[in-house]
Automatic annotation (TrEMBL):
Pfam families the UniProt entry points to: OCD_Mu_crystall
UniProt organism field: Pseudomonas benzenivorans
Source species, domain of life: Bacteria
Name assigned to this protein: Cyclodeaminase
InterPro entries reported for this sequence: NAD(P)-bd_dom_sf (IPR036291), ODC_Mu_crystall (IPR003462), ODC_N (IPR023401)
Length: 314
């Protein structure tokens, strides 16, 4: 059994096309019905504004399955600590023995979450999308844009966050690290006005994005709602979008954006099925597409297998 620390893992696993392909393969397997994935085990720790999720999945034919333990404590930044932490345990799919411990401190979760956003945009956003609006200014606000650059020619970023100073710091970081043109806005509506892609990256408990904020032709990826008390999208967005996609229907209904629209009567696609069937969900440049990402165990098993393979080659 090998134990790998965050520094070792981060040196090998990057936001790059190979990692994107690994996570996309996991989604495709889910879409083909080749994945065993139980519901998320989730526990809230209300007095500390914290939560802990345990996710797992087995992909048929893959050598290992992962069990991920992921705490999120959202007051940690006030203490100078990261909001997310955790580790992944890799087991042999043949014997059940522990193959590796990936003590990544949440790094692989950050990577696979960003890659899922890029995969959603790859299959749903317009081919010529160049302008992205980001709601939120934390780490995922950065990584989502970085991952989007793997699938679209992103040139402009428009950001809105609750704190102007956080948004300004984010803008500086994105200009310096990625050479992007970044504009800070005082409202989500202003940030989204000319966007081709919108990404919400918040732990919000009430909508941060409304239907009236969205221009025609935009693609929206909502990745913050992964617990029943969280919500980023006004339900009318789900009702009015031309195409609505989720990572897993049962998860979105239990703890994602669909949880807040229980009476919604419309067709909802799963991202993995679209990938597996090579289906083109968007049929015109004017359509509004939406993807709700709650975070799935198959992503964790996919990125953990990929990471272990790279680490073993070292």
């Amino acid at each position: 059994m090998n134990i790998y620390k965050r520094e070792q893992i981060a040196a090998k696993v990057k936001l790059d096309p190979a990692a994107l392909a690994a996570v996309e393969a996991g989604f495709a397997a889910l879409g083909r019905g080749e994945v065993e994935m139980p519901p998320i085990l989730s526990m809230n720790i209300a007095e500390s504004n914290g939560e802990v999720d345990v996710k797992t999945a087995h992909i048929q034919g893959w050598p290992r399955f992962a069990v991920k333990i992921s705490p999120g404590f959202f007051d940690n930044p006030k203490l100078g600590l990261p909001s997310l932490n955790g580790l992944m345990l890799l087991f042999s799919a043949k014997t059940g023995l522990v193959d590796a411990v990936l003590f990544d401190e949440g790094y692989l979760t950050d990577i696979r979450t960003a890659l899922a956003g890029a995969i959603a945009a790859k299959h749903l956003a317009r081919e010529n999308a160049q302008r992205v609006a980001v709601i939120g200014a934390g780490l995922q606000a950065e990584l989502q844009v970085a991952a989007l650059r793997l699938v679209r020619d992103i040139r402009q970023v428009h950001v809105h966050a609750r704190g102007r100073s956080k948004a300004e710091a984010y803008a500086t970081r994105m200009r310096e690290q990625y050479g992007l043109a970044v504009t800070v806005h005082d409202s989500a509506a202003d940030a989204c006005a000319q966007a081709d892609i919108v990404v919400t990256t918040t732990p919000a408990r009430e909508p941060v994005l409304r239907w009236s904020d969205l221009p025609r032709g935009v693609h929206v990826t909502a990745m913050g709602s992964d617990n029943p008390h969280k919500q980023e999208l006004e339900p009318s967005i789900l009702a009015n979008a031309d195409v609505l996609v989720v990572d897993r229907l049962s998860q979105s209904r239990a703890l994602g954006e669909l949880h807040h629209a229980p009476d919604l009567q419309r067709e909802v696609f799963e991202l993995g099925r679209l990938i597996a069937e090579e289906r083109q969900a968007r049929s015109s440049a004017e359509q509004v597409t939406v993807c709700d990402l709650t975070g799935t165990g198959v992503q964790d098993t996919a990125i953990a297998n990929y990471a272990a393979r790279l680490l073993e080659e070292a």
